[in-house]
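Tutorial sheet, problem 5. The two components below are modelled jointly, 970 residues in total.
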Amino acid sequence: MKQKHKTNGLSRRDLIKCGLLAAGGVSIIEPHQLLAKPIPLKAKAKSVIQIWMWGGPCHLDTFDPKPEAGEDYTGPLNKPIATNVDGIRIGQLLPMLAKQADKYSIIRSMTHGINGHETASYRVQTGHEPGRLVYPCAGAVVSLFKGYKHGYKGVVPPYIVLTRPQGRFSEAGFLGPKHKPFSTGGDPNQNPFVVEGIIARGVSDKRQQARRELLGKLDTLGQTMGDNEQFDQFDQAQDEAYKMMLGDARKLFDLNTEKADVRDRYGRNTFGQSCLMARRLVEHGVPYITINYNGWDTHKQHFQIMDRKLPEMDRGFATLLEDLSQRGLLDSTIVWWGGEFGRGPKVQWAPPWNGGRSHYGKCFCSVLAGGGFKGGNVVGKSSENGTEVAERPVYPEDLIGSLYTQLGIDPDGPLPNPRGLDLKVMAAKSADSRLKEIM
Amino acid sequence: MVKICRLNAHSGLRMLVILLSFTVLAAGRLQAATAYPFDISGRPKPQNQIDNLVMASLKQQNIAPANLCADAVFIRRVYLDVTGTLPAPEEVRKFLENPRPEKRKMLIKSLLKKPEYADYWTLKWCDLLRVKAEFPINLWPNAVQAYHRWIHDAMSSNMPYDQFARELLTASGSNFRVPQVNFYRAIQGKEPSTIAHAVGLTLMGTRLENWPDDKQKQMEVFFSRVAYKGTAEWKEEIIYLDPTPTDTIKATFPDGKTVRISPDQDPRVVFADWLITADNPYFARNIVNRLWSWLLGRGLIHEPDDIRPDNKSVHPQVLAFLEKELVKSNYDLQHVMTLILNSRTYQQSSVPQTDNPKAEELFACYPVRQLDAEVLIDALCWISGTRERYSSPIPEPFTFIPEEHRTINLADGSITSQFLEMFGRPSRDTGLESERSQKPTDTQRRHMLNSTHIQTKIERSWRLKQVMRSARGNREKLIKDLYLLVLSRYPTKEELAAVEEYAKTPGINSTQAAVDVTWALMNSKEFLYRH
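Model answer (structure tokens):
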């Protein structure tokens, strides 16, 4: 596949059909095919921080409280609190977020109807229904349109996951492994934050250099082979790797350079420090950061877990919004909070759940802040007890399409793909279904 | 370092230049004979019909084949290609000392009987057949285990390939109890067109989207009566022949022959019986080309799952020969593998003797390629004497994975592993061969060079400690044993000297030096690639 594909107005598909193009259906896309056209829209946002509520957080206990629905729905969390925006109340365990409500908008009518983690995760992160193709998730698409080929110059990859990948579906989909996220591993709440491949314990720079020289001397096969395309690529990748290992990337991940009180404000826990890390990555220009925040699949002991986790989430998320805003970064940074679905509005009191909440894809909520999205708004409405969408259903593709628009990626533009199919970046559910209210 | 000399052939001087370049090459090889442990020079001698055909074809194109690979290269290569594992140092030592001329043949025979052969080839099939508990295939753990076990049994018993394909295509029943029906379950979509695409890709090596529309439609007919229903058991599904009465169906096979399918016949069976006939143009070609590609890194027709009239075999007669051999042997896959493995073509060095850029494509040398992710982690675990822990969050039943299992044994493509994904494990979404990525990335390099994961493996390795202990301060023995352990060969003089020198680096003690040498060998291309 060394030849350049000159298409002269014919699409790749046409050429394949006529048998003119030999590379019938390569699955791993070559870089030149992925050079998507210059971004046509004016970008308001430069970066996205996605707080992925892995497992599915309950909408009633967070951003869509229903105190009037009774204890069977609210459990003990029946006293929502006012926010700094008139008329918006949120869950009682989120007091710090209540003071930042002017910065974010709540979508209370998210829906897709899927109750399985894996399919719902795919649905929410890609905006697509399952089908013959496996689509890339938003982070992979953003890394395609805003990555190194489009002016990104960071010392770390353009799509970063803190700290573990979720799995369950392939993030990069048909875009191939190049667009997989770089997941840091380690724990930013530990000292040092061991970022796999960048910061290792116990090997000094001097030894690292000595090893590198040794490695060069022992590369007998490489030296014997002479020119070999694969080995050349290997050497290039290795040079890149050393650049990052010995260069500025380490400073970027060194949270000790932050003041202690800043670290305290975010919360001395993995999530809080991940939020702080995400802010540092945004300052560095990284276009897409996912914080995989797990532990929300609460079939049992739901309310005990909420008592423990919601304050942690409240602190990290609220401090992130405040800090971004104080640093003038919120206008260019989208913060997207949400999971694959909500949780059953009706509490399951009976055994074996004994006060748990099930999976619920019919109605849930998401939060969007910054990057051109207006704060202090509520989009859509759920029914009295949160079981149905009452007004203005919002599907994942509408949220993602809106997010792309803010980033200057035309959601109606073409999405390059290995089969040369005529695909859109993110088609809207219906005309006017994107989130104009808050854009 | 001496590099192979590159001379540009000008039309008038072509012969002279070729002669000259051979002279230079020979001189270069002589000089380097001690330094390069990878091949054995000498006149290429064909070992079987494959070599006769490949060498004739190369000669026609004026391309010199590579030398025969060295014994140490061969044992490592054939272990990796047949069993997905490394040879133990003891095996290597014995093999190198064995004077019998037929020792390669004997090794091939014994490897095909090893349990790891079945493990590794099951892994390959599970990629194509998309064996995966979760999205987008959603077989769930029960069916994954049943399907994997069936494939594994087929590999270890060397089930005739026509039977293997026929059972996949024609089985009916519960996907927990009749594992073969998962062929249909593991297709994304239940429409006849989606099934036809998957059948074409998997068993015919061809992509239906490149076919004319009417021919695609004709093939769909054979899968128009596949029906699915759930049961009371969670996630179980039954695949069966739709009992809705039909008229006789007039159908056309992909080769243009027509057939009338009566209402009491299962169209899938009619299709399967057409597919596995001896003169079917698609069936044998697909599998022998895949076998070739699985052993030699690329197909005679490449990509191996993109067979179409305008994508030609680089050595058409070789393909035709292997097809005949497969049919003649009653679809014995190991017979074809044995032929390939015993050929000089397979046993060539990866160091080319030509500067023709098409050397790899034409099999004028053995194509180098990165180890599969699963094979790599198994090799790292083996050398370090450590284990990887795999677990699956997917209910139900939860999958229990014994720690002593090799990674090539993992049945379920949904099991999350950052390492495996980083090193190109396929996502098992499409069944395309190209889903498995063998391209080096900087993330991979960083992980190997500088991760706690790898560093800990080396530092905690009991096997390494054992090697150090048994060397009893004899540094040359230590270095030799490390080379045997990691690279399956002895070091050259130059390498010994380089390591000796490294051990004298100020501030690095002898244990650190041994760790660093192991680290360097594990990071060498020679370790990370099949070669």
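Marking note: Residues 200-252 of chain A form one domain. Full credit if you identified this.
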